[in-house]
Design brief:
By secondary structure, the chain is α/β, with parallel strands linked by helices. It has one domain (2-119): Ribonuclease H-like superfamily/Ribonuclease H (Nucleotidyltransferase, domain 5, 2-Layer Sandwich). Helices cover 38% and strands 33% of the residues. It has four helices and five strands; from the N terminus they run αβββαβααβ. It has helices at residues 2-5, 50-66, 81-87, 96-112, and strands spanning 11-21, 24-33, 36-46, 73-77, 117-119.
């Protein structure tokens, strides 16, 4: 999938991971457009859980992609699909602040063009 879309100027590929060691969460994301590393973000936080770190990485990455012109497809590669599902869960949960921020960015992304697409 990555090789197929890596030459497209209209597709952003985001690769995410988060982990916790000694009460320090580390989240890292790489964003590629047209097979070029556009942004690499590394965040550290103390006393948070992996879910919060993953959601924050997703939030920052989607925010960066939405600020780019002509992006019509976002592909997010993560080993925490259960975290990504929390974004679209409308039932009240402790991560709703992050989910609302992510959905706000996605709303702008889909408002630009209704055929825009995001895949996890």
């Amino acid at each position: 999938m990555v090789l197929e879309v890596s030459s497209s100027n209209f597709t952003a590929i985001i690769i995410l991971d988060a982990s916790i060691k000694n009460d320090i969460a580390t989240s890292i994301s790489h964003m590629h457009i047209a097979n070029q590393l556009l942004i690499k973000m590394l965040h550290h936080a103390v006393f948070v859980i992996t879910t919060e770190a993953e959601l924050f990485a997703i939030r920052c990455s989607i925010n960066q992609v939405c600020s780019k012109e002509n992006i019509s497809k976002i592909i997010i590669i993560t080993d925490s699909i259960h975290v990504a599902k929390k974004i679209f869960n409308t039932i009240s949960h402790s991560y709703q602040d992050q989910a609302v921020a992510i959905l706000s960015n996605l709303c702008q992304f889909f408002t630009k063009n209704q055929s825009n697409l995001i895949e996890f």
